[in-house]
Amino acid sequence: MAQSMMLIEKCSHCVSWYDIETGERQGRLSLPDYPHEFVVDKEFKYAYVGHYGVQNSGIDGTDGQSVIVVDIEKQEVAHTYDLGEHARPHGISLDDNGRLYVLSEWTAHLLVKENPRAFDQGWDHITPTGGTKSHLFALTGDGDTAYSMNLTSGDVTMFKPYDASFAPISIKTGKKPEGRCLRADEKILYTSNRISNTVTVIDTEKLEVIRSFPTPDDPCRIYHDTKRNRLVTMNHFGGSFSVFDEVTGEELHRQETPANPLALCLDAEEDYAYIAIDCEQVQRFNLDTFEIVQTFDTGKEPDVMVILPDGFSKKWEALS
After folding, report:
1. pLDDT digit string (tens) for 5-35?
2. 21, 28, 73, 278, 317 from 91: Cα distances, Å
3. Which of 20, 90, 158, 264 has its CA 20 to 30 A from that of 305?
4. Residue 134 main-chain phi, psi, to 5 deg
5. Is the dihedral of CA 92, 302, 63, 78 positive or negative?
6. Paired strand residues for 19
7. In what order do the strands lie in the sheet with 272-277?
């Protein structure tokens, strides 16, 4: 049975679902203007969508002040969590225990909801990141430690979401760190620095930079291909994606995209990469050959995506 993709279409102000084999749209749910990052729980029951409220980080505005809970099977909004003054939620994650973490770019605080299925209001922990314009973050599996990517302070800060008395520790990485990837063993954090055009390798035990290596223009995101021991960057204004050897930092492959790449998703077997491209397309690439094996059309500004397990298309037949 075919798998499905859940995809934010930021400038169409919605989330959509697609059959990843045929590219056929299986559903669409309208959301408030400019939804952005989202995360799906382990049971693939709920998606938690940050209502960022503006198109990108360079635009002013605090219209986005909520997290929208989407029931994936029903393709409907189940609940909305209010963030109050902590506007512009961007980074969002769940830990291994299912607790929800939301990063406010406006106040540079991380908010924690210990039971995101409670469908009440209020946040259990609110902790400052120690940086400015905190945009994305990486989180350890137990939720004890977080690493914030701070766009304007030019650093990564390590802090403790459950200990507001802990003074965040700053690690200088380069100009405009944004992309982040915490290795599965949690010993290494990779960050991509959009203005410096570098990847920084951080030892999370020593909390220091081990090394850095150059990238093409504007590496907005970074991902780990664990199957091949490689790193992949989305070079936004460079109009390409790059594949690097994880150990040496050598660029192994660079591939131009038809417009600016926005986000990437690996399938469970890590055979293919799905790349959202700012020309209303998702393209699927073979990670061994880099051949484009599929292209399908989307709404405006496709971005973050998650591949759902087999069977969801069957559940949605009753909705069509």
Report:
1. 999 999 999 999 999 989 999 999 999 999 9
2. 29, 23, 24, 20, 32
3. 158
4. -70, 125
5. negative
6. 4
7. 261-266, 272-277, 281-286, 292-297
Q: Are 182 and 138 in contact (CB under 8 A)?
A: yes
- Tokens 């790059």 -> residue: 242
User: For residue 164, which phi and psi values (nearest 5 degrees)?
Assistant: -65, -15
* Contact (CB, 8 A) for 217 and 279: no
Which tens digit of pLDDT belongs to each residue from 47-96?
Answer: 999 999 999 898 999 999 999 999 999 999 999 999 999 999 999 999 99
**Nearest Cα to Cα of residue 146 among 135, 156, 158, 136:** 158
Whole-number Cα distances in Å, 55 to 59, 117, 118, 199, 259: 7, 28, 30, 25, 17
- Rounded to an integer, what distance in angstroms lies between the CA atom of residue 12 and that of residue 297? 13
CB 148, CB 92: distance < 8 Å: no
